Amino acid sequence: MLATWWAALSPIMKVLWGVTLTASLIFIIQTVMTFLGADADSDFDMDVDTSLDGSDLSNIDGGSNLYTFRNFVNFFLGFGWTAIILQPQIKSTFVLIFVAVLVGVALVAAVMYLFKWLSTMQQSGNINVYKAAVGCQGKCYLTIPGERQGEGKVQITIQGAVREYNAVTDGDTIKTGTPIKVTETIDANTLLVEEINSYII
User: N or C terminus of the chain: which is more exposed, having fewer CB within 10 Å?
Assistant: First the structure.
């Protein structure tokens, strides 16, 4: 019966179902890993060279946080299910795709806002970042552009808890997964960091 249903689908619906089911499966795996304490997110480390009037699009409004695997999954999750559910009601393919894209973008924005809010709530506890963060070690979570050309993110262990902060560096670009150490607190949400191995000869 499943084979008959699949064979009856149009090529575009087969693609939509394939993308949607794949995104849904990855989303479930990410969710399970998150609850288990694993790091289910990853940075694509995209070297975005496309520019508009000389500006790097990847750095607009914290754009480096946009290009993550989690956000791509969220987009295709919202896009795919919207297209599948509304396909019987919307006969125009263009309108259907347009609406599905809007929902996908809205879902990504909502999830990013949620994580930002949760991060703010997490960091608003009783930890004094200015006193406790310097010297703490951790890893780069999202690539940090070199020479303070933009912000990335780090996860550090501070007072026995793992916390996530925005981060800049005075040195070269620090890639995702690189061990880091905090050298200075810029503000309550931003740290100055360096690679732990940067001075090892």
Answer: C
Burial environment of residue 77 by CB neighbours within 10 A (0 to 12, 13 to 18, 19 or more): buried
Sequence spans of domains, the chain: 2-123, 129-196
At residue 113's C-alpha, the angle toward residues 21 and 130, to 5°, is 130
C-beta of residue 199 within 8 angstroms of C-beta of residue 183: no
Q: Give the E-state strand segments of the chain in sequence order.
A: 51-52, 55-56, 137-142, 152-158, 161-169, 179-187, 190-195
pLDDT band at 133 (very low <50, low <70, confident <90, very high): confident
d(CA 78, CA 101): 8
- Would you say the pTM of this structure is higher than 0.70? no
> How far apart, in Å, do the first and last CA atoms of the chain sit?
64
Q: For 129-196, CATH number?
A: 2.40.50.140
